[in-house]
Amino acid sequence: MRRRLAPYLLILPGGLWLAILFVLPMVVMLSFSLMQGDVVNGFQLIWHWQNYTDSLSAYDDQLIRSLVYGLLATAACVLLAYPAAYWIAFRGGGRKSTYLFLMLLPFFVSFVLRTFSWKFLLADDGIVLGPLKDAGLLPQDFHVLATGFAVVAGLTYNYLPFMVLPIYVALERVDPRLLEAAQDLYAGRAQAFLRVVLPLSVPGVFAGVLMTFVPVSADYVNATVLGGTNNTMIGNVIQNLYLVNNDYPQAAALSFALMAILLIGIFAYARALGTEDVLEVAAR
Amino acid sequence: MNEINPELLRGMTRSRRDALRLFGLAGAGLGLAACGVKGQKAAPAKQSDVQKYWNGKTKHGHVNFANWPLYMDKGRTPLKQFTKETGISVTYREVIQDDPSWFGKIQPQLQANQSIGYDLMVITNGVSFTKLTELGYLVPLDHSKMPNFAKNAGAAYKNESFDPGNVYSVPYQTGITGIAYDPAKTGREITSLADLWDPKFKGKVGMFSDVQEIGNFGMMAVGVNPEQSTADDWKKAGAKLQEQKDQGIVRKYFDQDYIDALSRGDIWLSMAYSGDIFQQNLSEGSNLKFVIPEEGGTIWTDNLTIPKTAENPVDALTLLDYFYRPDVAAQLAEIVSYVTPVPGAKDVLAAEAAKATGSRKKTLQTLADSPLIFPSDADYARLRHYRKMTTAEEQQYNGVFQKITAG
Questions:
Q1: Domain extents in chain B
Q2: A152-205 confidence digits (pLDDT tens)
Q3: Is residue A218 within 8 Å of A234, Cβ to Cβ?
Q4: Residue ranges per domain, chain A?
Q5: Closest Cβ opposite residue B29 in set A27, A236, A280
Q6: Is residue B8 scored above 60 in pLDDT?
Q7: Is the pLDDT of residue B2 over 50?
Q8: How would you write chain A as a 3-class SS string?
Q9: What is the pLDDT of residue B249?
Q10: What is the DSSP letter of B343?
Q11: What band does B36 get if pLDDT is binned at 50, 70 and 90?
Q12: How far apart, in whole angstroms, are the C-alpha atoms of residue A201 and residue B348?
């Protein structure tokens, strides 16, 4: 008897946690997405599916922009993270943990503060652009802030460690003897990398992409701090709908639409990469 | 990847069953939420409500005060003096960035009848203020405990259209929304709203993200008085603002952070609150200028209000009334440089200027003579008021202007 109960008892705390703090709020939000009304007069559940079509047609620009920024930032993360992870894993030697710690060091500073510090760094007359403008290398009205580039760069910077760590873990596991074997079989350095190391590190890249693309697409801090009039992301819209307009139904509808789009995208991506089971790879 | 762990596969089937169970739970949740969420529209407060609320309330010796940034000096001088005189300590936080966000933050707690952690908060007249009163979230003030207000408040501030008879609120400060600019960057005097549309300042103009503020400026730019505007006027104003955005003239739609952007040089001219600019010049030594545009500026009132779940309402009311002593009002005017609701502060400032020497004398005299702290009748004539809106009108209004500020 006790033996049969044990697994259930073990899952109870976590299960309850999920049920109360994740499932229930999601259900409430789902029902909100089908309501109509306002804060003063109350909301009625009338299966108002129009919330979905209305919010998607009103904010399609921001939605597409978020996905594009998400893809660009994720791609930039892969390009920057792979060489760094590779170097730490194969050339790090005895200092591997120091390098990893350095990689994580920015996390000891608050997310918002890190982003704000970029604002000072990249200000129109700031320490980077100011001297360049004075030297006549840049036109006076040149600016980096308030552009899509600034937002994507900020996103890349803030989420880079999430990409480095899983790739590093995957590369660290590659047995160096495999490389020696490849060389014994007359593979050049490039061949060995392309046919041995790269395929073995794909699960790491996959997990890294999952861990960056989803939060990056829904991020709203970077667009707020570094963006301008045409860089608003869907996260900003949702935040605005919830907290400024108190339009809970539209906000909920938009959140669920975003979630659905991200899930579909991820499963399609998993298919394309040939991994049958998304969760399995993510768990590695 | 190729060899799939059989344990895991088994796990997957089990989790699929669990997923079905989750859907069952979800169904139950839907049932719970099915009845919708009730509105809490409240009837306007009557005299009996005032007594009912204040009966039996006592002084606790502490008050929590929520205010906007740059709305008091760093040393919190008036509050320290208040504590010295009354024995009531004050926790002061500048947590309010804009009204709708603040409303969004406190609304769930007020709805659940929980304390929001503050006993006194400053709310601008506008849609959020209207919502707070309509929902019965504000305490009706007990005027028998507010002798300073009765004696010293200016007549105009005792009968404001958004809260006639000061049932729920008294003004903390009044201010003007106009244009601030850095003359060194613009290279010329800025005098009119049209300057905000000048392609010469492409990418260097700041506008406000607050829909009421930006909507008002759009309307004034097309020659409409916001207080009497119609839905058609909003569309016209929206088109004018869209044009400004499409031409790349606007750098960003700002909250409170326009001041930093202005002093860093990211923007050269911007919609601005009068007092912010004076304070910035005073504290940072910057050389920004503020003007009320020819076409008009807006005047708004920031109000001291007590939320219905306040834990220390008596202490809050004492502090609220304290701000209406002419000497305190003069002190505050000197600090924040906004329009004070206490006309008597002018005499106090002039008297102090007469006593003072050196640079302080000059500062005080400037303040006492400043048309932006004690506006002239001609200035008042150029200033426009916010339009009062119903919730339905507000949704329509938001639809027009948020499309612009939402990028």
A1: 47-175+300-382, 176-299+388-405
A2: 999 999 999 999 999 999 999 998 899 899 999 998 889 999 988 998 898 899
A3: yes
A4: 1-25, 60-283
A5: A27
A6: no
A7: no
A8: CHHHHHHHHHHHHHHHHHHHHHHHHHHHHHHHCCEEEECCCEEEECCCCHHHHHHHHHCHHHHHHHHHHHHHHHHHHHHHHHHHHHHHHHHCHHHHHHHHHHHHHHHHCCHHHHHHHHHHHCCCCCCCHHHHHHCCCCCCCCCCCCCHHHHHHHHHHHHHHHHHHHHHHHHHCCCHHHHHHHHHCCCCHHHHHHHHHHHHHHHHHHHHHHHHHHHHHHCCHHHHHHCCCCCCCHHHHHHHHHHHCCCHHHHHHHHHHHHHHHHHHHHHHHHHCCCCCHHHHHHC
A9: 95
A10: T
A11: low
A12: 75
Q: What percent of chain B has pLDDT over 90?
A: 59
Helix (H, G, I), strand (E, B) or coil at B206: strand
Q: Is A104 helix (H, G, I), strand (E, B) or coil?
A: helix
Q: What is the CATH number of domain B176-299+388-405?
A: 3.40.190.10
Average pLDDT over residues A255-273: 89
CATH architecture of A60-283: Orthogonal Bundle (1.10)
Q: What is the pLDDT of residue B304?
A: 97
ipTM associated with this complex: 0.72
Smallest CA–CA separation between B223 and chain A, in Å? 25
Show which of residues 248-277 on chain B sit within 8 Å of chain A, judged by CB atoms: 250-253, 264-266
pLDDT for the residue numbered B307:
97
Summary count for chain B: helices (H), strands (E): 17, 11
Determine the residue type at B368.
Answer: A
Answer whether B1 sits within 8 Å of A281, measured CB to CB. yes
Helix (H) or strand (E) holding A88: helix A60-91
Residue A72, pLDDT above cutoff 90: yes
Beta strand B269-273 with B250-254 is unpaired
pLDDT at position B24 is 53
* Helices A198-218/A248-272 angle, 10° precision: 170
Q: E strand or H helix at A12, and its extent?
A: helix A2-18
Best of B17, B252, B271, B398 to disrupt the A interface (most A CBs within 10 Å) is: B252
- Domain range B47-175+300-382, its CATH number among 3.40.190.10, 3.40.220.10, 3.40.50.1580, 3.40.50.720: 3.40.190.10
* pLDDT (0 to 100) of residue B5: 47
List of chain B residues whose C-beta atoms are within 8 Å of the C-beta of residue A274: 1
* Domains B47-175+300-382 and B176-299+388-405 belong to one CATH topology: yes
E strand or H helix that includes residue B103: helix B99-111
Q: Is the minimum CB–CB distance between A45 and chain B shorter than 8 Å?
A: yes
Indicate yes or no: CB of B407 within 8 angstroms of CB of A240: no
The sign of the dihedral angle between the CA atoms of A215, A217, A223, A226 is positive
Out of A187-191, B42-46, B245-249, B402-406, the most confident range is B245-249
pLDDT for residue B373: 82
Burial of B165 (0-12, 13-18, 19+ CB in 10 A): exposed
- Give the 3-state secondary structure of residue B210: coil
- Taking all residues of chain A, what is their mean pLDDT, rounded to a whole number? 89
- State mean pLDDT over A34-61: 90
- In the predicted model, is pLDDT for residue B13 greater than 60? no
pLDDT at B32 over 60: no
Question: Does an H or E element contain B202, and which?
Answer: none
Residues of B within 8 A of A231 (CB-CB) are 407
- Of the listed ranges A68-72, A128-132, B283-287, B300-304, the least confidently predicted one is B283-287
